[in-house]
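Supplementary Note 3. Input sequence used for the single-chain structure prediction.
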Amino acid sequence: MRYKLPVVVAASLLALSACGSSGDAKSTAGAEFRVAYLPTANYLTTVKDSGYLEEELEKAGGTVKWVGPLDPVTAYDTVTAGEADASSTGTGYFVNLAGTSDAWMAFALEKYSGASQGIVATQQSGVTSLKELYGKKVGIDNPGGTGDYLLNLAFEEAGLDVSQVQKVTLDTSTFATAFASGQVDAIASYDQNLAAALATPGAKTLITGADMNSYNWSIHIVSREWAQAHPEELKAAYDGLVREAARAKADPSVITGTYREFGATDELTEQIATFDVPTIEPMNDEVVSDLEKLGQQYVDFGFLDSVPDIKSAVVDES
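The predicted structure, written as discrete structure tokens, is reproduced below.
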């Protein structure tokens, strides 16, 4: 699962200020790259098994230390406490983070079509279209989080009024139960939560991220202090993720196998296998432009007051 954090968490974190490329600072030899990895199948987690990160860091004179698996909040707290150097999140949370802190920099985008995100209605709801969600309960992860973003974007693009929907905030562990039991009429979610809903008999897919003008992807971030002190090692870490993406493209079981390790059932894994395999992209001008568009969507939806300076919060390893 590619975890995204709620907007409200961002206020408790330190914030990102100016950057550029990883070549802006002189590297300190022998750096240890401490990764606070998540219990999900993003590449900063799956690369733990391939050894590519260790191989690339070794070329630059560095080493890798794995910290985790940690839930997202604990992972970020671990980095801000100085006990780890890097972790992963979603682009929506990163855009919010870039506007509220200068402790982080993004160094790699993990991009996919959006088919692993969407809105799915229960059979018992009888809902077959977005408009039929008026007056219905829709489960989301957090206000301003991925599910809320997808719901707002879907309704905006359909010319519908999202205020007519009853949003219900659900804990990650309760999505499947709430959906299957009819506690909610639909969910707006991603990855394992979406897969669980899709695998439920009679469930109706209303829309996916691939059907919308969505800029919601996964992103890998590092503390600004570490990035500026160890530019060569950070480039090596990026290269390791590029190799890991190529491994997954050649053998998608890299992803599904990791989901199994973290407890996904065979049924869920079969559904997840239908999602596309992500790529790793550098934080170049095109990506910055996309994240600025995402920032504008967040402003339009009332999640942010203004679009943050994304350019100052990234490291372009291209």
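The chain has a mean pLDDT of 89. The longest helix spans residues 231-250.
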